[in-house]
Amino acid sequence: MHDMSAHAVQHGAPTSFIRKHVFSTDHKVIGKQYYALALAAALVGMVLSWIMRIHLGWGSFAIPGLHLLSSTGAPGNVLTPEYYLQLMTMHGTIMVFFVLTTAPFAAFGNFFLPIQTGAEDMPFPHFNMMSFWVTFAGFLVLVASFFVGDGPTLGGWTQYAPLSAIGSVGGPGEGMGVVFWASSIALFCIGQLLGSLNFITTTLDMRCKGMSLMRLPLSAWAWFITSVMGLTAFAVLMPACILLILDHVAGTSFFVPSNLVINDQVLPHSGGSTLLWQHLFWFFGHPEVYIAIVPGLGIVSHVLITNMRRPMLSHRVLIYSMAALAALSYMVYGHHMFVSGMNPVSALAFSFPTLVITIPSTIVVLIWLGSLYGSKLRINSASLFALGFISMFISGGVSGFFLAQPSIDIMLHATYFVVGHFHLVMGVAAMFGIFAGTYFWFPKMTGRMMNETLGKVHFIMSFIGAYCIFMPFHYLGIAGNVRRYQAFTDDYLIPLIPVHKFITIAALFTGLAQLIFVYNLIYSRLKGAPATDNPWQGTSLEWSTATPPPHNNFGDTMPVVYHDPYQYSVEGASSDFIMQTSPEKVINPKEEK
Amino acid sequence: MATTVHEPPKIELDRLPSQGSGNGGWRNLVPVDGDLRRVKDHAPPPASTGIWVVLASITMSFAAFTSALVVRQGGAQDWRHFSLPPILYLNTLVIIASSVTLEIARRRIAAFMGGVKDRTESPARWLYITLFLGLLFVAGQTFAWVQLKSQGFGLATNVSYSFFYVLTVAHALHLTGGLGGLVRVIGKLNHAVLRRSTLDATSRYWHFMGVLWVYLLFLLWMKL
The whole model's pTM is what? Predict the structure, then answer.
């Protein structure tokens, strides 16, 4: 026994502050670092959305201090049209990459995937550390673009060529801002590729005794599937970013066509393909949507099961559906390009799998609803946000049926309808998944409970607020309100301005709710009630170790798994749940055959 | 809320934690009756899985470059064809030779580790030769870039040259990573801490670089 503890110390936690908290190779510290990065990024993205919303509701309103951000972009504290688009681009980029990808996948995945698989750490901890720091560097580069030249890029998070590739001749936000953007995203890709490498190998090779693939919890499955998507998608975006940077700094002509005249100047480029960028971008871009949402599917399932005290109707079908979403996500990317002038036959070819992808999505939703039906769901902040996730996923998903059809999409594509669709299904739903995960796992991550009352207030305000913001977007879209406009001066748009004002108020209200969440997070971290090892009576491996988990996750002995992950309310068992590590024999286990 | 505190499981006291030990595997179900003897204990080392993940990712990146080339060339009026610098063919022989020497090295080291070979012979010799050939390849590629540049054909001269530089430089950068891997393997071998899986993963990466180069040469030869 003496030797064993000596051995544990030998592999023990680092003692210096730098190795322990900054350049740590511990997946749990890296997970928390990713979470902190996502939180900071979300706050930046949210403030940007407030500025944009205020500008859309009250165009001449001077926002105090805005000129400090950019004296040329906001003279007199009012946004210029270009600066509005620059903020919009940064909002989209920060939210999609540094929040929706970072928090549910990299943050929670890093912290909990090794624990849920029964591993001591990821297999390549130095790569894992590098993954975070490269991503962090990417974020710094992106934020730095606010302060270079004429500010950040205005090309939207999709950076369509040729606007994104022509350089500063095009006007503000088309010069160095794009180079910073593409460099930032290339760094982000490297970070996520290193992360995916660790996630995949952890899932395949690091499982503890008894942990077969089908015994992995749904959250672990979701992270695994997401990492496979990330591996292939980010590996395509990075070359695209390199080509875009070269068009800027080396004068190549990958994306800029011949004889393009911008501001009375003929550009020196020749023969570039503007559609090439769209192909490369959306081959990444559509899987990216699922990279943002699939971890949420897993987290929400995991949270709901624990609070329903019974497994989902089918563990396997849920896993297969998530895998089907991932596989199909590569075949549908062309539906983002229906208005690019593509051959109608190609549009049909992309429309078909887009409609097919609604089948696994619907199966997932029906499994949730069927499992929830008749269950005595424990109502807490985590389960409420999980329910909210389902609601947002359905509401945002239904509009996807319309947009999947080229004939309708051509009408709605450039309107607020699409903005409403993706914000609900990918933005708010994924955020609700992050919140559900936060309230659920915060005790395990920090050793303290979050405040439930504040959590419920946060949920109610966010739920009502999010619908008040994004449902009217659909109405605006159907009314023909074009997106990416910074002011509504056309006759048919002026009557819609009151709707925009309502949305702005709703956005500020919802933002306020997020400040409650941040307060709760900080307060609970410092003064929350101490958490026990298994506060929710969960069954998976993260609940069988100490709170917070020791450096090597399970102390001196490695866990052994005897059961499927969700053994709740098993007939004849000694309690209403049997942990995966419990060697207890049960007469009628709820095992998947 | 009711609370149930669970002790950390202490089922298998003889098992000590160790970094990256690979505790799992593909199918190692513990039966409900808890007969641990029926459980397989050894999973493949993560490096053997990890290297395939890395290669898949690199394949995707070069597939993206390839499709960019095909799309860009397909509709181009301005595509300028040119002959590849002849040294590339010599470089191809060098990289193929390096794969052969690495394979010899791998087998000798395996034999050395198994105690079959006489321990007086340095098992790292063929690794050094591979490293030298790898450096020679990079030098040869650099020569090709300098030669083209001196003839006035730069990155932005025409998009065909752009693709030539992008693809060859991207490959050379990946290959440089492989050189780093070889140096690491030699270092570990000299300190007698080399794992078989590290050696295998590095050699798979190196062979893949060779295959990738032959593919790129064929692509460039066809399209440029």
Answer: 0.91
